[in-house]
Amino acid sequence: MNATQQREYWLKVERLRRQLDIKYSSLFNAAIRKDLKQFASDLKEFGARGALSKMGSYAWSEDMMKIMNKLYKEAAVIFGNAVYRAIAINNQKASASMFNSEWVQKAVEFLVQYGFLLVSEMTQTTKAKLQDILAKGLDEGLSVEEIVKLILDDRENGYSAMRARRIVRTEVMRASNYASMLAADQHDFIVDKIWISRVDARTRRIPKDQYDHVSMNGQKVGWDEDFTSTGKKGDLVLSGFPGDPTTPAGFSINCRCTVGFEGRRDSNGKLIRKNK
User: Fold this and answer.
1) In sequence order, which residues have a C-beta less than 8 Å from that of residue 50 and are 6 or more positions away?
2) Which of the residues 93, 203, 235, 241 could staple to 177 if both were Cys, CB 3.0 to 4.6 A apart?
């Protein structure tokens, strides 16, 4: 896969991702707004100290997890099929079978494994924002009613919409890449994976950012090997795919990278079959 093919592949993946971005942004936005309304209600009923105390019980968002479950299942079908077919066509091997229920189940198992951590981080971020609004309001001598208005007035701070866009961008990217990994592994021949970055002014890089995805663009490793990168502080980052939840948050959040694949060939140009 040369540079031109990588760019074309990224664009195709991005078009599929945008369909999910549009669909799930409103769902995540509604879930975040629900948390904002709950805190505002607690603030009016129990005051600042009581609302903060009750916030401590918001350890988990069932609404967020339900949305994530739906997103990962849909991404498994869409991207699993797309990647499986693309590899089959490019290598002229294997039939383009549908991404089956077993693969969807694997995507769900992935979410079960990491979902609590991911959703908890989302919830904690919202809680931190609410605490900031409350603290600022109290410092400025605002009344409870005025602080509640700030919390609920998304036209003023745009928080829930912004958070929803960031969450959906990150989770669609994560889910699509994981589903792609599952699909690529279904072929009978050995497949290598390629890190494909969207290289433009927004791509994270050092020294502007803590991590560098520009330098990773085009890096190729075996399907079961890790991509490698080095952070600004010299820390080594190992990533199975873009969006790997075991990597630092700053490495993955709002990432636009994707993982591509190509069949490994022997010295005669023939695909190398897996040993079974």
Assistant:
1) 42
2) 241
